[in-house]
């Protein structure tokens, strides 16, 4: 018998387009909302029981999710507080809001368990994304309450009648529409439940599953097994981030990591987050082994609100450099359904980002201070992360400058302060700037590294994709230091001293030598200069000027505003050693022989840089064979 028919509050004519277009970007969210509401209702009855306001047996509080492919229904059942017909009218029918802004405000304020039913009403309407009709069967926990049934077909009209529930709680039955029949599938529903409900605090049952159970022993004394059907509980109700660190072992953290990322290598270490003021936040963040190729693996940090999965798109909550981390963050201060603009403007979100940055920096500093050797061993994996943080986050830079490490070609590790003390006296040029020499490939640039080592200069290894940006930042932050790649010029030019060496060539001889090489090279991108170098140095050295090479490297990495440099042709400096004995030989030879010698030593210089290829390499080999056999 129909007890009441009516029209939902006029404002709710706006609910459905808002839900479908703005609040929920993905239809699968409906299941998260309904299960989350069922869990809230269950936690409410547990709370009332603990406060002595509900004195009956709680019984089994498992939330049950089921579907009927024939009837085209999905049902979410709980044994929570339930609702009376009046509460249905209040919380389901009178949701009065005229747009998304007011909805956001309502959600922002729903932080307390007392507002659970109000939240139920809001999230409940996501059901109409996939259903032609929604039915509620409910029985309130209140003494003398009668069961109630509510039905609505997605319009503003509803019907309330007497219900058929005989036990406390609520069943929400969705009659799935033809466009969304994909959800009437066991594996699809299991996938959604695994994604959103895996760590909810109340057991969630979804059908049954087969498990192997020991069944005695056979006549040979070997164990027998049998298949048994058990409830398919899809969630862990007490994940590790809800516990105190003192309750957990290293194995607990590693086991949880394997559960989250079954295909990943084990993490280096982790941070347990737990703060109550000025916002609520728990979680565990793991430092993964980061490969040297620069790939930010997004969607690795999972964001929860009261153990309900929200998203793994956390870029507006977590500082960009922390996107390299893996793990879980849970904060009830972040509502379930929010826009990007809300997240970017919300003060709690900003505080959370700042707090996490500080905690990560403190953890790294603690590891560095406590066991420097172990920290240095991990540096290859975490160096990229630390440098990225320093480049993108000023507050992190201020802390990290004390534990970021520079590594030289001898695999020695130095802090910024230690390294400056090491090289300041030897590698400061006549202009007062200390030069930090570096290589991006110690094998390929071996001859240049050796030239630096002969002068007792130290050479850093800077072979990570971010190092160009990192060096540029240090040049801006640190006083009077400059980074120069060992092959950016001849060594005496990289660090110019007052006692610079001079060559004995006359101006005419220098000019003639330059013309010999220009004729032999015949390439406008190669600029020939006669230099005063040690007689033991190579006869010819090819270099690319540091600033230009660095800009081109950044352009290759896709650095903002660097595209112009990437489009410029490569240009090199060809430094001819005016003090090498071969120079005297060239100046005394006829033009053809001098040109041949110049071509040969130039090709040798190209070869040392890995720049001699194709026909030029073939020609060089043939020429070299002729020289040997003549």
Automatic annotation (TrEMBL):
ATP binds at residues 33, 37, 78, 83, 98-99, 170, 340. The keyword Cytoplasm applies. The keyword Nucleotide-binding applies. This is Chaperone protein HtpG. It comes from the Bacteria. Belongs to the heat shock protein 90 family. Pfam families: HATPase_c_3 (PF13589), HSP90 (PF00183). The lineage of its organism: Bacteria, Pseudomonadati, Bacteroidota, Chitinophagia, Chitinophagales. It comes from Flavisolibacter ginsenosidimutans. Keywords: ATP-binding, Chaperone, Cytoplasm, Nucleotide-binding, Stress response. GO terms for molecular function: ATP binding; ATP hydrolysis activity; ATP-dependent protein folding chaperone; unfolded protein binding.
